[in-house]
Amino acid sequence: MNVFVRKAIWVGLVLLGACSKPSDTPSRGEITITADESLQPVVDMLTSAYEGVNPNTNFNTVYKPEQEAISMMLRDSARLVFSTRQLNEREVAALNQEKIKVQTQFIATDGIALIVSQTHKDSLVTMAELGDIFKGKITRWEQLQGASLTGPIILVFDNNNSSNLTYMLKRFNVTDVSKLKIFTVNSNKQVIDYVRKNPVALGFIGVNWISDGDVPLTAELSKDLRVLGVSEKPNPTSVEEYYQPFQRNLGLELYPLRRKIYILSREAHSGLGGGLMTYIARDVGGLLIEKSGIWPAEPYNREVYLEKR
After folding, report:
1. I need a surface site. Which of 183, 238, 266, 300 has the fewest CB within 10 A?
2. Is Cell membrane a UniProt keyword of this protein (predicted)?
């Protein structure tokens, strides 16, 4: 092999290495990520906080129904996804074929909040009653114990493929929805708007949409709504046996309709996605999630020192 051929090969390898070098690091760059739409408030908060301390970074966040969001990550259209479930065996196998090992990080406990308009005087429901609603045995408000309204129960969700709907159907082992009065809109915010205007509607949203009391949008969205308390007991004897999706009730596993939030990443180098995951896993991430009103996987520890005088 003559010197010119060797030199050409060396230059080619250098150029190939330069082209394949990742364009982002934990503190610099721009990537596309995706998330289930029901998680938008907490995802916006976390990514904005990270960009605030790392001004040379930018996350292009795409909000989709959960299955579409996960599919974006699988197709490499997004670096990572915020999801309420882990990958299934088929999805893991698809990444394994590409020799990609998915990173899974549990970051918080969220929940499904049940909302009705303020025209309802009663704001309590049991899991047994919810089960009968999703099985088509209860179809009208007056069939619920303590109900103050009459009329058909309309179940309102953000999307046909939303994690909220998937969670409720799976929770009550529902495979046939043809007999249910299900109405879908395009976002959790639209669910809130619809329920506010329609007394017979029962809405299902991600808790993080209404849990951060410090955010003006949260206060605005919560107006003229009631959040139902839910009891796992079939025949509760007191109001104390019902639980709303408050942070403490999520953390102590008292609220029945709770779920986990994960980050699923296909990132193969030490890049911006990994930087965000590390940021969330540390104390500051737990503190931000705690502020949002849901329960962090790693609660922020507050140390209090008392002096005896």
Report:
1. 238
2. no
